[in-house]
Each structure stands twice: as structure tokens, then as C-alpha cells.
Amino acid sequence: MSWYNIGTLNDLVLNSGICAQVNNQQVAVFYIPDDEQSVFAISNFDPIGKANVLARGIVGSLQKNLVVASPLYKQHFCLKTGQCLEAETIRVPVYQTKVEQDQVFISCQPVLAAS
Amino acid sequence: MPQKILVIGNGMVGHHFVEQMRSCDEHAQITVLCGEANLAYDRVYLSSVFNGKTAADLALTTHENYQNLNITVHTSQWVEHIDVTQKQLVTADGTHFDYDKLVLATGSYPFVPPIKGNDQSHCLVYRTLEDLEKIKACANDSKVGVVIGGGLLGLEAANALKQLGLDTHVVEFAPQLMAVQLDQQGGKLLRNKIAELGVSVHTGKATSEIVAGEQCRYRLNFADGSHLETDLVLFSAGIRPYDNLGNKAGLTLGERGGIVINNACQTSDKDIFAIGECALWDKKLFGLVAPGYNMARVAASQLSGGDLQFNGADMSTKLKLLGVEVGSIGDAHGITANAKELIYQDPIRDCYKKIVLNEAGDKLLGAVLVGDTSDYDTLLQYMLNDMTLPEHPECLILPDSAGAPTLSSSALPDSATICSCHNVCKSDIITAIDNGANELSAVKTCTKASTGCGGCTALLKSVVDAELAERGVEVNNHLCEHFAYSRQELLHLVKVEKIKTFAELLKRHGEGHGCEICKPAVGSILASTWNDYILEEQHVGLQDTNDTYLANMQKDGSYSVVPRIAGGEVTADKLIVLGEVAKEFNLYCKVTGGQRIDLFGARLEQLPVIWEKLIAAGFETGHAYGKSLRTVKSCVGSTWCRYGVQDSVGQAIAIEDRYKGLRSPHKIKMAVSGCTRECAEAQSKDIGIIATENGWNLYVCGNGGMRPRHADLFATDLDTPTLIAYIDRILMFYVNTADKLQRTSVWLENLDGGLDYLRQVVIEDSLGICAELEQQMAYITDTYACEWLRTIEDPNAVKRFRQFVNSPDADENIVFVQERNQIRPATEAEKSTLKYTQQRPIAVTEITQEQEDVLV
Q1: CATH classification of B4-108+241-303, choosing from 3.90.550.10, 1.20.58.220, 3.30.9.10, 3.50.50.60?
Q2: What is the pLDDT of residue B454?
Q3: Interface of B with A in 538-597 (CB under 8 A)
Q4: B403: which residues sit within 8 A by CB, 6+ positions away?
Q5: For B703, which DSSP code?
Q6: Domains, chain A, ranges and CATH?
Q7: Is B451 helix (H, G, I), strand (E, B) or coil?
Q8: Mean pLDDT within A19-24
Q9: pLDDT-derived band of residue B263, with 50, 70 and 90 as boundaries?
Q10: Topology of domain B112-237, per CATH?
Q11: Using a CB-CB distance cutoff of 8 angstroms, which residues of chain B are in contact with residue A23?
């Protein structure tokens, strides 16, 4: 897997999202230090609202899923799988993440997440 | 062995029986023989087919549905003969069917009066979907149509002809329309109203023959020597029960037809039941769907070991005929001994209402309503439940009379029938809600209430709303799954425990990570209480995107910018700056309803630059993005206006300056009018102020928008310091006690004690909290700071306004095209076309004619 360094943890916003450009793709990156994984990355494109806005949604949890609510029409997307909780057939691409010495890396291509 | 149940007829009642039977007995072997080609459909709304509805829209069921219920159905099967000894029947095509129990739901057929010439090609009846097809075909080569029969069905049929564009007439033998349901006065008004709609009504006319016409296809000759020409005749002169099968089988019939049944809906043969319009109970036929459904339930109960009984039915009815509202309840004609009548007749609003009372005047026996049936539900409940009338029963039919007690859900007994079609009473609805139906549609699905004629829709909603509201307060005012507290409780916790961050509140009183419901609500509570800068690191994740970026997100992810223009007053210099900024950044300009200017199409990274220029010109944030004070609209007031009595603009500016930045459970709008002409529309605002000769009148809790509410007059002739003190207290009381996202209008409606209570709290200080409320407000106003000023001064905050954390690029998906000399977001189709023709799609592009052609 090839990785892309988008910056440091300092560039992320606590319990919220930012957007990074990775390989010409818009990736929404969320920083939730309470969770084991702590950094999550999904596509920034909201397939329902058809705009690049998911990084600007509110993050939280529904039941056990960590989710972001689209700021346009409030559908929830699971941060781990990209699955839209309101529409079974809709799933946004998910990227792998890793943090090494405060540097944040995103996989250059979306990965197939286990559902 | 499961019992073999055979049903003849698949009209509305036959279908209802099948469903009921299946739900009572899942093993019974049910077979349905349906004479028509279509399975059961909604005959009540038949004429809507001419209004664009299709047969499928009217269908009550489908073959798949019957298959799922394990019910065998044969369509276009006419039964020829029933052999009651062999318990067997044979159809027209010779097929034999056995039964253990037989249910006759054969319905009725339209009565065609024995008039000479009634069997010609364009003489039709109005009953089935097939009849409609024939009517449609005949209407094609017709200009004039006559309905013979001025009863309920006749007027429905007239509606159908009118929908087909025919010059429509109604001929009625009786001296008035709807003689069964209406009294003479009511009938007269109905006639006038229908005539106004372009339908000619001829009452007291007995048609003696239909002969060839001179201008039209036919001529109707009447007994009194007059005549009427028409191309098409539609008979709707009543119905007759389809009882010939019962007759041939030797079942007992009534003198004038109808298969006699007992209270168990059983005919003279114990294994044969009859329901609906073919059945005669206590010498009465029932031509409405509700009693038919009732019989269907009784028969299903009896056939599955139950003991439900049919005890007659209420024939009250409410409907809209040709657009005219008509209602008839119980003893409409006042034939009960010593009945008394109260009549309200309004020739201006063109309505007629009559209630029939018992001798003592404390019980309702019947009613007639023409032109306005808004009182129908209430009146019907009084009659059906034998409830004692209010002291002055006339208030039940007087328009908007102050004393009219609204029959609230809580006043109804649990046994009150809400939906008569499906026999759903209030207790059924309560049970459904207790079992988890937590909204109107769910209650409808599981009780079927309001899915028949629909007449009880409003009543059902009020009962459901009231019940839910009751529970809402008791059991589910929790903010969301993360906090088992209401907004008000959380606010108290924040204050008492001096909690300053969401994380702290979640740790102490919540669970999980929060969500888009609780985070902004808590953000708002923290802001109302501590008035911290909302983009501090610990608060930023709580805000909706609009608050995070201090602008309003539009559908394509771009933002709009709205600087504050207090009171709608703006200098020429400031207007020029707005114009210059809009021009520089190529923003779309629109004047808002709140008297300011909205600039659309700003990209995220442009927002701080735009605001730097606006702030340099003396603008400040307008909070158009926040749940906070939006605008204080004003008329021009006494300064310029010939009629104004106070300086409404000056007052509006002062008030907007005072409350700007106040974070609240929902947005707040205000207005100040300079005189009683009310040009600022203050009575549709949360806080409305109207100038008087002596000071200011204060209105509260109005609303426009989706659910308009007229504001209530709170206090009159106030001087400015008192006015401000009252508004301080009202707003802070609202902030402290409202639910999440609750506008002041709903807040007041849900406040126990309502307006009077609010007056006690605010004017008389009944809770002793006025000083505290004012102090809280003083803290908020003293600590006000323009959020945009703070943001552009803080490099760390400005950093957030970038599309990409790691690149200066802009979002290529935001694309504009020109329309009416300004930009607008490109549609998806336009975007895909532009992709191939453009290097940098962010720049604004004029669509060329060539591209237009491609797009179309």
C-alpha cells in the first residue's frame, strides 16, 4: 500500500473534520482521539447532496457506529465503512490511515472496508 | 380441517371482510369470487379518476397481496346459482365451488327509473370503473350531460361530468337536493352554491320520457310539460340491493328487497352471511361504507368463534360535493319529538349551520352543515358519545366565537369513535401509541384509522398529537441517545455545575460521542450561558457547518454571506461596498425578507477575505447562520411617514443592537412598526413591537413560515425602558426553558398556563426570577463580540477556511453559470458538459449557445 502524508496531527481539528487532497481526490479526515483508531478518512463527496462537504459535518456516534452527519441533508455515514445508515445501497469510499510521530498518512487509494 | 369460506363479491365491504377474516383465522381456506374485472377499489373517490387518478390509485388490494394472505380469488366470475342443501354454487361458466360458510357481499346496483327511452346508447349509470370508461367514451361526442338524481351519488356523478368538460345539469324529483341528509334551507344553499359553480339544478322535475332532441342528442320531457335537451343521461337515482342470488337460494328477503340478516349478519340460512349494501338489517339498508365495514367485522368475528354483533350504524356523513362542503349528522330533520333547532345562517360567507337539540337543550341529536363543515368532527363527537353540551350550545356553530370551547382530545371519552369507517376508538389509538406507534402515519398504519373516507383526518391528528405530547413530556424529552435529559435539564446542569465544555458534560451526564442533535444543542446552551467565542477549539466541533464557518452553506457546498443591516437602514456608502465586494468575488446578490442583502456563491477560502473587506467598511456579522437573533425589520416610521407615530427605525436599530449575538434554542426574528398600519408585519414575529400614540404595544411568539402563528398581544402602551425589560425577560425565559429547536410560537403553546402564565412571570414576577433573567441578558449584551472580527484577527481560526488542509486549490466541483446576469450553481448536467470544454471550471463561464444545445 502506498501512503500519502497530509501533514501533522496539529493540522487536524479535534472531534471534527478537515479535507485533504490525496492524489487528486478529496478526502475528509476526522480526528477522534477517544477512539482506538483516532484518525478516520472517507471521501469528501456527499453522494446524496452531490457536493464536497462531508469534512464539514458533525461527527458523533449512533449506537456503536462512529459517524459523520452530512451538513447538507444530515444523512449519517459510518467513518469505518463509509456505509450510509439511511440508504443501504449508498456507501462512500474509505481510506486507510496511520499516524507515525505525529505525521498523518492516508492511503493513496480507497480501500475495501469490511462491512 | 380448516373451514372453507366462500365470499361472493369483492367491493369495499367484501374486501374488508377478507382482510378481517384472515386476521381472525389464519388457517381458513378463503376463496373470493369477484364479478368485476378489477379487484376491490375505492368507490368513494370514483370521480377522482376524471381528475387524474388511475384505477391503480383507487385499488385497495392487488393479486400479490391476496396471494400473500393465502386467499384464492377469481375475477369476472358471476355466480349463477347457490344450492344451499349441497352447500355448493355454480358460476356462469359452469365451475362448481363448495363451501362450509358462504358470505354474500354482492353490494347493490344503480336504480334506473322506468322512464320510456332509458335504454338508449348514451343513457348510463355511475357505479363501477367500467361505468366510468363508458361515460368517458360517451362524453367524447357530447357537449351537454344530465344527471337524473340529486342525492349524494347524483352530485358525485355531476362532478364527474363537469370534470369531463360537459355543460352539466342535475334533475331531481324532490323539491330539493340531498333530501335525505339536508333540510330545506341547507338544500337551498347547496343548490345556489352548485349553480354558482356552473351546474344547472332542476328540482321538482319528474322525467316522463327521453326522446330524440333538436339541438342535442336527446330531449327529456318532464311531467310538468317543460323539457331539457342533452347529449348524455346519467342515472343516479338511488341503489337497489343485489339480492337475486339470495332470492333464488330461498333466503328471506325484505318487502322491498335486501337479504334479511340478524345481529350476527346471518341470513335465514345459518351457514350464509350477508354484509354491506345487499343486506337488510332491522328493515334498513345501509348505503355507506362505514356500516358495511362494521358488518364485515361482525361476520368475520362470528365465523371465527367470536361474538361481535351488528347494532345498526350512524349514518352521519361529511363530504365535499363539487367543491361545496356538506355535512349531515344524526337526526338532521329534527323529527325526534320536541326537538329544538338552533340555526346560524351567514349570507356573506355563504354558509348554513343547524344543530338539533333534545327537549332539555343539553344533548345534540343532529346537525346540518352546508358551506363550512369545520365543526363537523366536534358535533359528531357530542352526538355519538351523548356528551352534555356547553351552556350555550350555539357557540359550537358560531364563527370564531370567543367562548367556543374546543373539544380537546382529553375531553373525549376513551370509547369515543374517532374513525367510523374502521371503527377505531380513542382507546385503540392510545393502545397503538403505547405499543410504539410514535407518529401519525404509524398510528394510521396499525389502526387503519382515517384510511377509509378520510373524514376524521383532522380529529385523528389532534388526538394523536395530544397523546404524543402527553407522552413527549413524560417519557421522551431526552435530547438524543447520548443524553437522557431534556434541553432544559441540561441547561440547569451546565449552570449549576458550571460546566464549560461539551466533553465535560458528556463525561458527567452522557454517553457515546454525541451527534448532530446534541452537539449543536449543547453548543447553544454553552453559548447562551457563557457567551464564549464559538470557534474555540473545544467548541468548534459542536457547531453546525453554518456556525463553524459563520456563513450559510448552499446546495453545492458554497456559502452565502449576510452582513448585519440593523433595522434595514443602510447608507449609500455601505451599499456601494456591498456592491464592490459582490463584484470582486462575483457573488450573486439577493435582497432578503429581513431587509438585508445576501451574497451567494462564496467559496470556503474566500470567506475571510470577503469579511476583511466588509469589516473594514464597518459591517459586522449578521448571524444569518446561527440559532440566534436574525433581524429586526422596521417600517420607515414617524421620521418620514405621514402616518407614523413613533420612530420605528430608531427603535428597531436599538433593539437589534441589544440582542444581536444572543444564542437561543432556535432563530429569533423581530419587527417594529411605526403605527397601527403594521407595515413591518410585527405580528408574525417572535417579538413584535407596534407604536401607539402613548408608547409601544408588545406582541410575542408569532411566526411566519411553514406553520404561521399570529403573535399574542402581551402588553400595551409601554415606555421604552419597560419594553426592553420585558423583552429581556421573555427572551431569557425562553432560552432557559425551551426545548431544542423550539420556536417561541411552539414554546408558548406548550407552556402550561400559556400567555397568562408568561405575563405573570414577566410582568408580575411570580417566580421571583426577573432580576436574574435581566442579569443574564446584561451579561450576554456586555460580552458581545463580532464573531467575524474575532475570526479574521486570529490566524489559527482563518486556517480552517481552506478547502484543503494540504493544498491551496479550490473545490473543482463548485461551478457556476450565468442566469439573468448573475451567477447560479451549475446543474449536474451542465457540470458534466463543462468538464470537457474547460481548463479551470472554477472560473465563471458563460454557456455558449452551442453548449446550451448540448445540455438540452
Answers
A1: 3.50.50.60
A2: 63
A3: 538, 540-546, 548-549, 553, 555-557
A4: B390, B392, B395
A5: B
A6: 3-107 (2.102.10.10)
A7: coil
A8: 92
A9: very high
A10: FAD/NAD(P)-binding domain (3.50.50)
A11: none
